[in-house]
Write a structure and sequence with these properties.
45% of the residues lie in helices and 13% in strands. By secondary structure, the chain is α/β, with parallel strands linked by helices. The radius of gyration is 22 Å and the shape is globular.
Length: 390
């Protein structure tokens, strides 16, 4: 039996999502832009999914643009806003050092095109101090992009306060909510934002589909040109089955979130407390209060995270060292580095991210195996140190 504790990388597709998608793929294959019955049936499915997702976000259906996932949504938001402002004097974008690479690399690209990019500092809590935005923002700032919940440590940012500061100078505010939508309530009006990115596979939907919510009245230039799909904001034949899957996942999240949030948080806390109690030299990274309910990131002193990941995988336990998009690079966590941790701590930290299918038995299995694995790795490390010393 294998235990999956890497839900921030991706989640298992819900059976209801998979079954509905299979039906659409078999029976409702029409192009949603076609005017005949086949096409209009496909369009009706898309409209229903748009309405379901809007309900999850407490938004208007017409404000939602379907995309291929979080990375495309982030690119459409940042590049689209930047392109719409090329004729103005606003050539400044602010983000943070703990953003997903889809944000950081897009900002780097714009920096090479002459945009000024400011990176807000992060303290060891992993939460941005709004005062740092106040001292960085100017009348030339076009956009502020700060993620809602971090993918590695799970910390939740004070988005409403940050967005209020951005709006005070007329800047647009975008949030990457890929790691929060479906886990905690996300109401766009309460957040006071202008754009929001999400991805279906982070909350039991299919891979390859996501969305960008764009507040009515916000202008951006489409990155993909072609047809007039998605109200001229994202050209291309719609992925009907994928969009339907996103819509079903949104429905399930709306229905199940309150109970799921409590249950998963209890499992996470049980796991975290057990690790801290039974494994010496461990400490939680980031704020333990302002975070999503399924995530804990823990440093293991005198352990290489990659070695621990492999050892646990051999025991049938799947975890992660951080973002799946950065795995295999051997680079230290840019999130922990931005928080000011030592090089060793940026490379000895493990992310445990739980989901609705996990059980107390899963947690107990990890707590039984982990101390033994850690002790073995530390023993091997001491042996190697003695060999090198001699």
């Amino acid at each position: 039996m294998r235990i999956y504790l890497d839900h921030n990388a991706t989640t298992p597709i819900h059976p209801q999502v998979a079954n509905t998608m299979a039906e659409v793929l078999r029976e409702h294959f029409g192009n949603a832009s076609s005017v005949h019955t086949f096409g209009q049936t496909a369009k009706a499915y898309i409209d229903e999914a748009r309405t379901s997702l809007a309900k999850l976000l407490d938004a208007r259906p017409q404000e939602i643009v379907f995309t291929s996932g979080g990375t495309e949504s982030n690119n459409l938001a940042i590049r689209g806003i930047a392109e719409s402002l090329t004729s103005t004097n606003r050539r400044h974008i602010i983000t943070s050092g703990i953003e997903h690479e889809a944000i950081l690399n897009t900002c780097k690209f714009l920096g090479k095109q002459g945009w000024k990019i400011s990176i807000l500092p992060i303290d060891r809590s992993g939460v941005i101090d709004p005062a740092s935005l106040e001292t960085t923002i100017t009348d030339d700032t076009a956009m502020v992009s700060i993620m809602h919940a971090n993918n590695e440590i799970g910390t939740i940012q004070p988005i409403n306060k940050l967005a209020t500061i951005a709006h005070s100078v007329g800047a647009v505010f975008h949030t990457d909510a890929v790691q929060s939508v479906g886990k905690i309530p996300v109401a766009v009006d309460n957040l006071n934002i202008d754009l929001l990115s999400l991805s279906a596979h982070k909350f039991n939907g299919p891979k390859g589909v996501g969305a960008l919510w764009i507040r009515r009245g916000v202008k951006l230039v489409a990155n993909t040109t072609g047809g007039r799909q998605e109200r001229n904001r994202r050209a291309g034949t719609e992925n009907v089955a994928g969009i339907v899957g996103l819509g079903i996942a949104a429905q399930l999240a709306t229905q199940n979130m309150p109970a799921k949030k409590i249950r998963v948080a209890q499992l996470r806390d049980r796991l975290e407390a057990g690790i801290l109690q039974h494994v010496a030299g461990t400490i939680v990274n980031g704020n333990c209060d302002a975070r999503v309910p399924n995530t804990t990131n823990i440093s293991f002193d005198r352990i290489e995270a990659e070695s621990l990941l492999i050892a646990l995988d051999l025991e049938g336990i799947a975890i992660s060292t951080g973002s799946a998009c950065s795995s295999g690079t051997l680079e230290p966590s840019h999130v922990l580095r931005a928080m000011g941790f030592s090089p060793h701590r940026t490379q000895n930290s493990i992310r445990f991210s739980l989901g609705e299918n996990n059980t107390e038995s899963d947690v107990d299995r990890v707590l039984n195996v982990l101390p033994l694995v850690v002790n073995k790795l530390r023993s091997l490390s001491r042996s190697n140190e003695r060999v090198h010393a001699s």
